[in-house]
Amino acid sequence: MTIDVLTLFPEMLQPFLTASIVGRAQQAGAATIRCTNFRDFAEDRHHSVDDRPFGGGPGMVLMCEPVFKAVDYVESQQEGRPTKILLTPQGERLTQPIAAELSREPWLVIVCGHYEGFDERIRTGIGAREISIGDFVLSGGESAATVLIDAIVRLIPGVLGDDSSAECDSFSNGLLEYPQYTRPRDFRGMEVPEVLLSGNHEAIAKWREEQSILRTADRRPDLLNRTGLIE
Ligand SMILES: C[S@@+](CC[C@H](N)C(=O)[O-])C[C@H]1O[C@@H](n2cnc3c(N)ncnc32)[C@H](O)[C@@H]1O
User: Fold this and answer.
1) Residue 88 belongs to a domain with what CATH number?
2) Does residue 217 sit in helix, strand or coil?
3) Is residue 158 part of a domain?
């Protein structure tokens, strides 16, 4: 998979892109992630990328020209047509199924806003899917891009050491994951449930399934309603 990130602050992304699972995915050739700066496509001698909003009001708005030119540039760098994503708090809320869907795309172009956001014609003109990472407002799309990229890249087959670990994660089957334990068996009087030490795989699977349902019912009953496990 190729991911192009269009941003005014590529330096915010670099440490994230080279570390941990995303870094390893790139080293293994499962993902190539490139950053392009809108400012390189600014027209005037001040390299302006934003301006005051028509009609007045606070803040600065990202201008059409550098963003459209940056999108045209990355699209010219590779055969095929990318799936474009505009990061905005006004978009559809990111979920695990959306991350799974995007992990199957060969090429993504992610556009990060900044300041007061985008000129509306960027939203209507570049043909992007609009995605929000939650109902809160960030200063820029860069941190949202790291969240989105992490959620997507770990689902590319082969990226996690064991592909089944993503299948067990919360939300993958519509439920929260069961509780996990590791050594020691007893920590400050808190003991590991006996069944996990039993070696009985069937009993362990049953316990985990029950715990997953109980935990979801307790913390996220809205999810349980969607699975059809309760009426
Ligand atoms: C300060 S925000 C602009 C918010 C805009 N004025 C509004 O009220 O909808 C600047 C940029 O941060 C990014 N951003 C902020 N919150 C986000 C969220 N929840 N999900 C995705 N991107 C977000 C977007 O790219 C946005 O253009």
Assistant:
1) 3.40.1280.10
2) helix
3) no
User: Ligand 1 in contact with 90 (CB < 6 A)?
Assistant: yes
- Which of 75, 130, 150, 169 is the catalytic position? 169
Q: How far apart are CA 230 and CA 173, in angstroms?
A: 15
Best mutation site among 93, 109, 138, 147 for ligand 1 pocket (most ligand atoms within 8 Å of CB): 138
Asked whether residue 141 is assigned to any structural domain, the reply reads yes
pLDDT in tens, 160-193: 988 777 878 889 889 999 999 999 999 999 999 9
Q: Is 151 in the pocket of ligand 1 (CB under 6 A)?
A: no
Domain count across the chain: 2
The verdict on whether 72 is a catalytic residue reads: no
Average pLDDT, the chain: 95
Identify the band that residue 230 occupies on the pLDDT scale cut at 50, 70 and 90.
Answer: low
Domain identity same for 84 and 197: no
**Domain finish residue from 104, 125, 153:** 153
Q: How far is CA 219 from CA 105, 108, 190, 216, in A?
A: 32, 33, 22, 5
Query: 159 with 103: CB under 8 angstroms?
Result: no
Domain annotation covers residue 162: no
Grouping H, G, I as helix, E, B as strand and the rest as coil, residue 72 is helix
Which residue in this structure is represented by tokens 């209507």? 124
Which is the catalytic residue, given 89, 119, 123, 142?
Answer: 89
CA of 224 to the centre of ligand 1 (A): 30
Q: What's the domain range around 189? A: 170-227
Model confidence pLDDT, tens digit, residues 95-106: 999 999 999 999
pLDDT tens for residues 89-140? 999 999 999 999 999 999 999 999 999 999 999 999 999 999 999 999 999 9
